[in-house]
Design a protein that fits this description.
This is Hsp20/alpha crystallin family protein. Belongs to the small heat shock protein (HSP20) family. It is built from 2 helices and 9 strands. It is mainly beta. The longest helix has 13 residues. 9% of the residues are buried.
Length: 148
């Protein structure tokens, strides 16, 4: 039994012994209550992209994020979704003062080859950011090459 290595069920990996394990446990403890802390640590969020006949539909999961904290940019077909969030807690009680500040940011970019700059629509509702981007109609430039 002494040779068993603890397994971190939440992260699906074997846990190291020593200081690295200690730091992982401290990180897990500190990020427990933060609404999307696990995703912010990794610097990502879930994003689904659908290519339809005349548009792209992008849905990003941003639970607990306000629209003022989101920045969207479309430049030369590259869509960038950025989130910057600051949280300040100031509590005073009978014998204590608790002050905490958290600042976090994350960003994802995706290249949409035939995206149009005009007519883009975005809506944030219940933690889901929905973006509709019209597609340009481009002629098929594929040429078949015969092999000799």
């Amino acid at each position: 039994m002494a040779g068993l290595i603890p397994f971190n069920r939440r992260h699906g990996r074997l846990m190291n012994r020593g200081f690295e394990d200690f730091y992982n446990r401290v990180d897990d403890l500190l990020n427990e209550g933060f609404a999307y802390g696990e995703n912010l640590i990794r610097g990502n969020f879930k994003m689904d992209i659908q290519k339809k006949d005349h548009e792209y539909l992008i849905e990003a999961e941003l639970p607990g994020v306000k629209k003022e904290e989101v920045n969207l940019e479309l430049e030369d077909g590259r869509l960038t979704i950025s989130v910057k969030r600051e949280e300040n807690i100031n509590e005073e009680g009978k014998n204590y003062i608790h002050k905490e500040t958290r600042s976090s940011s994350m960003s994802r970019s995706v290249y949409l080859q035939d995206a149009q700059q005009e007519g883009v629509k975005a809506k944030l509702d219940n933690g889901i950011l929905s973006i509709t981007i019209p597609r340009e109609e481009k002629p098929n430039c594929t040429k078949r090459i015969d092999i000799q």
